[in-house]
Specification:
With 469 residues, this protein is an alpha/beta fold. It contains 14 helices and 22 strands. The strands form 4 sheets. Strands 6-5-4-3-2-1-22 form a 7-stranded mixed sheet. The chain starts with a strand and ends with a strand.
Length: 469
């Protein structure tokens, strides 16, 4: 049977994995980690419900871990086929995946020392070495270039404008009258260019060529609109208040791109006198490499961002910016007062930011602010929604620090923007499946698409298989 099967990011935002089967050939689109609630994270430890040997290729839409972070696990289960990605995504994966393996080893070692895991010994999902093995499978392909990924399955990437290197995966399958076009959006970038945006243009249109037969569409912000106001004044006020109290600022942020954006924004705010010059700690082992990739791909950024890069040059040269690579350097930040700490993961779902939150949340002088989507069940969402105390490494931690969130930094199109993009389609797909959204969000977007466009649309469910006709 020709089909699509949703192995992740269905009923939930993380774990993107979609299996495309055509004439008995199988291609996995994205290979992401589940993050957030334990019921989802435990799925990372289960083998896929399809024999790994039957998957001929993997196609990655972009480098975020919820789209790539399961790859080393797949490789360990015996997958040895090619992994197709844009050049930017492949370069970022070379930074993100080994870092993910290293952090999982650090976390397992921490749990074993603290005896805070239900498992003895606590094991990493995969190691840095597993991730390095996986990188050998990456096959970078140029945008808009048709590439055969399996017999009868051809891929073209179009720019999705979500993060550096992000693409839609546009497949042509079959031949003659039975040819079908199947598009996976991955994560769709912003159409409006707000003050917190950095990419040069919105997502590509897919209205050239044959009509799209099936669309697999993300729905993260399917029930919301992003605020349009410039976040800088409110951010400056919150940061100033915390520093005046003698406190510090902790910002959980994706280590790739979001961290670099924030770094340039904070630099600009310091130079403009909006906030004082205080030390900035980038507590992420991969930040240096990611900055180099960011600076190599400046062509993807919009003019204001390029102007900032021309003006301030490489953050490696800036004074009072510290890249903390080793666990010892990370721990030493505990002794620094009146500083800004940017650390991953962005949803506080793991990684070094947990240690900073455990250390700084109990002090009311401090400020913790969020700059991205917080998936339900993640520590980030619990803190943002006012839970107090929160559990970090199984220990209750009182939340006395000031908590703030700035939605403007989102790299996802909101509901209006998604509808605007869908209106560029030359005709309605036979069916649109909504993935990568919480159930409320997917349902709200499905209702709007049905009502406003009259399309056949369904939220996808985990492990559901749908026929392609
Ligand atoms: Zn993403």
């Amino acid at each position: 049977m020709n089909s699509l099967r949703f192995l992740g990011a269905a009923d939930v935002v993380t774990g993107s994995k979609h299996l495309l089967t055509w004439d008995d050939h199988r291609v996995l689109v994205d290979c992401g980690l589940f993050q957030g609630q334990r019921q989802w994270r435990e799925r990372n430890w289960q083998d896929l419900p399809v024999p790994v040997q039957e998957i001929e290729a993997v196609v990655l839409t972009h480098a975020h871990l919820d789209h790539t972070g399961y790859l080393p696990r797949l490789e360990r289960q015996g997958f040895g086929g090619p992994v197709y990605a844009s050049e930017g995504t492949a370069e970022l994966c070379a930074v993100v995946l080994p870092d993910s393996g290293r952090l999982q080893e650090e976390d397992a070692a921490f749990h074993n020392r603290a005896k805070s895991s239900r498992h003895t010994p606590a094991l990493p999902l995969y190691t840095e070495q597993d991730a390095l093995n996986t990188l050998k499978l990456l096959r970078p392909v140029a945008l808009e270039q048709p590439t055969s990924v399996a017999p009868g399955i051809s891929l073209r990437f179009h720019r999705a404008a979500h993060i550096l290197g992000s693409c839609f995966a546009d497949f042509q399958v079959g031949s003659g009258a039975a040819t079908r076009r199947i598009v996976f959006t991955g994560d769709l970038g912003r159409l409006k260019q707000g003050s917190a945006q950095t990419l040069s243009s919105g997502p590509s249109r897919v209205n050239s060529g044959a009509p799209v037969d099936y669309l697999v569409m993300e729905s993260t912000y399917g029930n919301r609109e992003h605020p349009d106001v410039d976040p800088t004044p409110a951010m400056a006020a919150a940061v100033n208040a915390a520093l005046q109290r003698g406190g510090s600022v902790v910002i959980p942020a994706f280590a790739v791109e979001r961290t670099q954006k924030l770094l340039f924004l904070l630099k600009q705010m310091m130079v403009a006198g909006q906030i004082p010059q205080v030390p900035i700690h980038i507590d992420s082992p991969m930040a240096i490499k990611a900055i180099d990739i960011f600076l190599e791909h400046t062509g993807e950024f919009n003019e204001p961002t390029q102007a900032l890069i021309r003006k301030f040059g490489s953050p490696h040269q800036w004074q009072d910016v510290y890249f903390d690579q080793t666990p010892q350097q990370s721990k030493a930040i505990n002794n620094v007062q009146r500083c800004i700490i940017i650390s991953s993961s962005g949803m506080a779902a793991g990684g070094r930011v947990l240690h900073h939150l455990a250390n700084r949340l109990p002090d009311p002088r401090n400020l913790v602010f969020f700059v991205g989507y917080q998936s339900p069940g993640t520590l980030g969402q619990l803190i943002k929604d006012g839970k107090n105390p929160v559990l970090i490494h199984k220990q209750p931690v009182p939340v006395r620090a000031q908590i703030a969130a700035f939605e403007q930094f989102s790299d996802h199109a909101d509901a209006d923007e998604i509808l605007t993009w869908l209106r560029t389609f030359s005709q309605a797909p036979r069916c649109t499946y909504l993935v990568h959204g919480e159930p409320d969000s997917a349902a709200a977007l499905a209702a709007r698409i049905e009502k406003e466009l009259g399309w056949n649309v369904q939220p996808a469910h985990w492990l559901q298989e749908v026929p392609l006709e």
